Amino acid sequence: MASYAPAGSSTSTLTDSWKTFGSQKATYRKSRRHSSHHAHSRNFSTDLLEDDSILLVKVDLFLSELERRLDYLEEYGNIKLDEGIQRAYDTLQAVREGCGRVGGEVIGEGKRRARVIVEVLESSYHEVIEAKETLPAKVHAGVRFLEELLTEFETCSHASMDRKLDQAMRGVEAVIDAKDKLADSIERAIKAARGRRLITYEELPFPWRVNPYITRGYRFTETKLECVRSAFALNNETCNIWTHGLGFILILAIAFYFYPMSQVFNYHTTADKFINGLFFLAAAKALACSTIWHTFSSISHQTTMERFACVDYSGISMLIAASIITTEYTAFYVEPISRSIYITITFLFGVAGAILPWKPTFNRADMRVWRVVFYVTLGATGTIPMIQLSLTRGISWVALFYLPVLKSIAVYIAGAVIYAMQVPERFYPGCFDWIGGSHNIWHVCVLGGILFHWHAMHDLFHRAFETATA
After folding, report:
1. What is d(CA 447, CA 316) in angstroms, rounded to the nearest whole number?
2. Per-residue model confidence as pLDDT tens digits over 219-266
3. Bridge partners of 459?
4. Which helix (H) or strand (E) segment is 259 a member of?
């Protein structure tokens, strides 16, 4: 049991009080029910007592109610206590814990619990019982005070719970109101698009707004078939759709015609061809996913629109990972253990990058800059093998080996910076609605980066073959 130092009395005094308590007769004025007492709480009055057993029963009843009511408040209230009510809670909690640790014979146990009540109150609310001379009188006063304290604590707790409920209801109403407003804005945008096919940025519902500097030429379609049809008409996504749509066809031509017909194809092993094929697959997937996203970005169903955006982001992640894998494969061409470790790590990063976009927050308009940062960081993981290569082969070897890749990296970074800064349309809003905007430039940079990397792979394999035959 926790030890509390009584103020103004000693343990011997308390013990003597119990010895004389049974023979004492005292008349008490019937206590008035507290005005704030709850209907469910019990009245632990200290009316005329005939012996100490009645008092001990009242103590037990109070402690039982204290346990039940505090448990309820702690389980369902979850309240934040201010300084005043915190003192009351600490006192009630000290009584509950102190009495809960008391054990032994029934009569002795009840007396020790009563003594705990007195000790706690003399530590925290000394003024309540300081005028009482005997322990039974202190217990009488203490139980009465604790019941009032518990009732007051419940009142404050229930008020806090009511405030929380009101806040929750206001939050629910705000969500419902926001959904209603979104539904109304979607309906207005659909009607506007039906009338004149293309709408303005201000007419778009908020989830579809991405770039405020592209002011006109927006589609807003009700069905996927309408999205496909709109890809063959002029709008502000036409350039985005066809730069990567035609780029997809070009990559397929390289993968299935130009690469097999090239002279280097005959020198490549099966593993070499697999790595080349992996790069072509990732590049084609990225371009195809981008084309699909920009084709269906105008769909009027928000969840469907966001899922198509996730398709685009997952394609970018796999392209970055595959590009890094080609450098790791050729750099460690004669070191299979290191090669396998680095390729596995990069592959796992790529898979993570393909999964992350499906998280709800990733596609939000305010996350645009962070999306760019994420992909730049993913690409930066390709520099980790350089540390080992610098130690084993020297910095000059690393610089010469990675030099062919710098062109594609520079193009990717330039496009990402332009996309993140939204230039040039930021300086001339409305002038680049159809072509020449930052997203159009980003698409050209992505396609250019793929082609530059494919060209760099010739040099990477050439250096790998030299290392293998050295």
Report:
1. 12
2. 999 999 999 999 999 999 999 999 999 999 999 999 999 999 999 999
3. none
4. helix 259-261
Residues 6+ apart with CB under 8 A from 156: 79, 85
Q: Which residues of 327-341 are buried (b: 16+ CB within 10 A; e: fewer)?
A: bbbbbbbeeeebbee
Q: Are 102 and 116 in contact (CB under 8 A)?
A: yes
Count of CA atoms in the C-beta half-sphere (13 A) of 141: 19
Residue 231 Cα to chain centre, angstroms: 36
Judged by phi (left if over 0) then psi (alpha if -120 to 50, else beta), residue 197 lies in left
**If DSSP codes are grouped into helix, strand and coil, which group holds residue 305?**
helix
**Backbone φ and ψ of 199, nearest 5°:** -125, 175
As a whole number of angstroms, the distance between CA 30 and CA 48 comes to 8
Contacts 24+ apart (CB under 8 A), 170-174: none
pLDDT digits (tens, 9 = 90+) for 446-469: 999 999 999 999 999 999 999 998
Contact between 46 and 31 (Cβ < 8 Å): yes
The whole-angstrom separation of Cα 291 and Cα 56 is: 81
Token output for 268: 């490549």
pLDDT digits (tens, 9 = 90+) for 120-149: 888 888 888 877 878 788 888 888 888 888
Helix (H, G, I), strand (E, B) or coil at 75: helix
For residue 235, the 8-state DSSP code is S
Binding-site positions read 294, 439, 443
Q: What are phi and psi of 3, to 5 degrees?
A: -95, 125
Burial class (CB in 10 A: 0-12, 13-18, 19+), 241: buried
Q: How many CB atoms lie within 10 A of CB 308?
A: 20
**Nearest alpha carbon to residue 462 among 305, 310, 330:** 330
Q: Where are the domains of the chain?
A: 11-169, 209-469
CA distances from 174 to 165, 179, 463, 466 (A): 14, 9, 62, 67
Phi, psi angles (nearest 5°) of residue 264: -65, -25
| Binding site listing for Zn(2+) | 294, 439, 443
Q: Helices (DSSP H) in 405-437: which residue ranges?
A: 406-421
Helices 106-124, 52-72: axis angle to 10 degrees equals 60
Q: If we measure between CA atoms, which residue out of 381, 309, 386, 393 comes closest to residue 352?
A: 381
- CA 257 to chain centroid, in Å, comes to 46
Instruction: Tell me if the bond preceding 6 is cis, omega within 30° of 0.
Output: no
Residue 120 in contact with residue 95, Cβ under 8 Å? yes
